[in-house]
What does this fold into?
Amino acid sequence: MPAKHPPNGRTVLLVEDDAVIADALVTGLTEEGMCVTLARDGVDGGELLDHGTWELVVLDRMLPGVDGLTLLARFREKNPLTPVLILTARDAVGDRVLGLRTGADDYLCKPFAFDELVARLRALLRRTTHEQAGRVGYLDVTVDLIARKAWRGGHELVLGGRAFDLLAYFLRHPDQLHSRRRLYEVVWEEPFDPHTRTLDVHLVELRRQLEAHGPRVIHTVRGYGYRLSEHPGEVDRP
It folds into this structure.
């Protein structure tokens, strides 16, 4: 059902069967200036996905009628660029990885803080226009997602495949904290092994390339992970 919303907000489809969560999100996102349409099950959600035009989709993982991943896979066949955030009560690594592999751009586990949801949605919306042109950037760093090239301050960076993917993910989500687990699961699309040093090796390569042409922009936040930002984290380690 359509929610009351301002006429010039960003069009968001919310597919969520939990009445309490759904009503709270419709109210909160509308107050944030978004134009929210709500579907309360997978059948209605599928109809709206097939016949509507959306700038952003927020999709519950487990839905009556048709499950969220089935809807996502079908939606991705015709809409490869529209950002989709999955809400899930299933916190298992395999479930999160499956959502990303199916085509989700981001995920958030229930219960979640509304402010974090809004921050993630705004980051997805900010990147959409640039990605439609095949490019995304932050400060003086830019990547061409189609040609898989990256630059800082006009200097082309020489990055391996995973380091490029890491940079692209950071650029899609600037000024956000990312845990080691999230970075690994999104970029490598496999369960995170806390004992592996693979992520560290690629972060070292990425930082070395970036810092050859300017100050540090990928900061370490002790006890959490990493953040792409103009400003240092709480504690920045070499």
